[in-house]
Write a structure and sequence with these properties.
Elements: H1 2-13, H2 26-36, H3 38-41, H4 65-69, H5 73-82, H6 102-116
């Protein structure tokens, strides 16, 4: 019985708890945004990128505080990862899951929150 108690104590003491996910990096998100998003959304995020004129649906203005405040971080994450159609928006918004990791998408969401000054939701 004593050996069983020692074994149980050892096993309980060796449980590994996962570390919390690191906070999203808005500065890295800005770099990713400039790489993947500015063609449509513009350098300043105003929705007037070089491709915007040719699109039948105009890209979201990420500076629009009211509109961006209405979107949760989960909504933004899903739209970036799975594309506009996944959140009932334009099919012209591509999915970026093949280009960015989940952590990188979280970084872009953090940058979008800074861009529109909406804060995390």
């Amino acid at each position: 019985m004593k050996k069983l108690l020692i074994l149980a104590a050892f096993l309980c003491g060796s449980i590994v708890y996962p570390l919390p996910a690191p906070a999203a990096d808005a500065a890295h998100g800005k770099a990713l945004y400039r790489t993947y998003c500015t063609q449509c959304h513009g350098l300043s995020g105003d929705g007037k990128g070089v491709n915007a004129k040719q699109l039948s649906v105009q890209p979201r203005n990420h500076q629009d505080r009211a509109e961006m405040s209405a979107r949760t971080d989960a909504d933004l994450f899903k739209a970036i990862k799975e594309g506009g159609q996944a959140v009932n928006k334009s099919i012209l918004m591509p999915n970026w899951d093949g280009n960015m990791t989940d952590d990188e998408i979280h970084d872009v969401v953090a940058y979008l929150r800074e861009l529109c000054c909406a804060g995390a939701k």
